[in-house]
Amino acid sequence: MMDARVSNADYAIQQQYRSPADDTPARRTSFLSRIQLKPNLVVLSWIAPVLLIIVWEALAQAGWLSPQVLPAPSKVLRTAWKLTLSGALLTDLGVSLLRAAGGFVIGGSIGFILGTLVGFSRIAEALIDRSVQMIRAIPFLAVVPLVIVWFGVGEGQKIFLVSLGVAFPIYINTTLGIRQIDPKLLELGRVQGLSTLQLINRIILPGALPSILTGVRYSLATAWLALVVAETVGAQSGLGFLAMDAREFLRTDVIVLTIVIYALIGVAADSIARLLERRLLAWHPNYGKGGRS
Amino acid sequence: MSNADTAVTVSALTRTYGTRTVIDRLDLRIGRGEFVALLGESGCGKTTLLRALAGLDPIQGGQIDAPGRPAVVFQEHRLLPWDTLWQNVSLGLPGSHPRERAAAALVEVGLGDRLDDWPRNLSGGQAQRVALARALVQEPRLLLLDEPFAALDALTRIRMHVLVKELVARHQPGVLLVTHDVDEAIALADRILVMRNGTIASEHRTPVAGGSAATRDELLRELGVATDLQVA
After folding, report:
1. Would the CB atoms of A20 and B134 count as touching at under 8 Å?
2. Rounded to whole angstroms, how far apart are CA atoms A189 and A198?
3. How far apart are CA B89 and CA B69, in angstroms?
4. Rounded to whole angstroms, how far apart are CA atoms B104 and A90?
5. pLDDT digit string, tens, across residues A179-218
6. A202 and B56 in contact by Cβ < 8 A?
7. pLDDT at site B58
8. What pLDDT digit, counting tens, does each position of B204-216 carry?
9. Hey, how many other C-beta atoms are within 10 angstroms of the C-beta on B166?
């Protein structure tokens, strides 16, 4: 969450009202787009991970790595294929994704609504912010035992934990985004005769959007983390259950498979968030085409 | 001056910050189509006057009589970076066909081919032209210009002077230009006011071509700038 703040500070600096004289097209060309070596760098960046997998496979094939400790990548792939054919993998994956989505929607809505209230109103801030910050200070995994007492080990517990993890990044970044709006633009809105509703629609929400989307990206990562923890504690289905069940039978290949799937979904979620940023922030020099990769 | 010809009438306007009086019982009248420049040293209250006329600050005394909402062009362009140019120009514009009307205004400032472009692709001068279109599309009776050319380079500024003069002649709003540039005031205005201690200290009709050097020296002297080298 500290990272969320840092990246927002960066954004604030970029977003600061530059005087028109500063705003020459030459300065707006991003540094990255001028680097000619970029495609080669992409290839270079893949060498180490690919090499690592080859070495891992070789060590496993040579029998230097016990399958109980770390099964070969090829073995994990075969397991993935078998579990897919039997339908078990897709069912558990679906259950996990539903839980993540449910928690994301609930926690995200709460974070967004509270963040909007606090961003707009100093009175709402006085009433709400201290409590939220106090709850945020608790590492949310520390409340797992309490949540199990409240909800048992059913769906409620899992969705609650995900919601809790999601709400804070969205809350903080929504508040920050609204507070960062250039007061000069709000003044312009008044001069142009905008109503309060128009002011919110045309100036405040679009201006806060980059920050809100940063919050979405961070909360996707937390949602996933919360889900892993929640499913590891007494689940009857889902990816975490698959891993825990495999542990009972020392099926290291299934455990590694679930870890890989968790990683892949994390990457996919981040890509979706980035795509959203590029679509919704086409106007922004750092997100639109020709900007950040 | 009949009422229909008046863009704004200000009588006994007073604005105070705590115990400090920034505008002190100021009277001013600007006719439609009249271009008035307001000169003054920093802190003389000229921007405060403009903000009061724009309805951005409350006033403590007196009266501002302006039919309709005045339009303002600020020193910074204040374009919304997330809106395209035509959306920026039609911001807060009542009535139908906002895109067509915004397009017409953008044609007038020479940016008719950039309707769907983003503000980030504009140079400083172009951005200020969009801001001008956004003000004029509302057909205001009073146009307030708060040092709108101060951040532009010299050549761009001269081009903007020509454009503004042309547009004001066509749309006939009353204009109040706040500036600290004496030459700009002489180039654009029909009437130049010098503000000091919260009131209008003096008033000058802009001279016809040739007589401007004397006016320029006089204005600079009033603003506390010595133009005569022998003074030292």
Report:
1. no
2. 9
3. 16
4. 57
5. 999 999 999 999 999 999 999 999 999 999 999 999 999 9
6. no
7. 86
8. 887 665 567 778 8
9. 11
- B151 Cβ contact partners less than 8 Å away, ≥ 6 residues apart: A19, A20, A21, B75, B76, B124
Helix H segments across A152-204?
A: 155-179, 183-191, 196-199
Pairing mode, strands B174-178 and B142-146: parallel
Q: How many helices (H) and strands (E) does chain A have?
A: 13, 0
Domain, as residue range, for B175: 3-70+140-231
Domain count, chain A: 1
Question: Which residues 194-213 in chain A show a CB within 8 A of chain B?
Answer: 194, 198, 202-203, 206-207, 209
Per-residue exposure over A174-187, b if at least 16 CB sit within 10 Å of its own CB, e if not: bbbbbebbbeebeb
Size of interface A-B (CB pairs under 8 A): 80
CATH code of B19's domain: 3.40.50.300
With respect to residue B47, please indicate whether it lies within any of the assigned structural domains.
yes
* CATH classification of the domain holding A271: 1.10.3720.10
Q: How many distinct structural domains can be found in chain B?
A: 1
Could you count the other beta carbons within 10 Å of the beta carbon of residue B116? 10
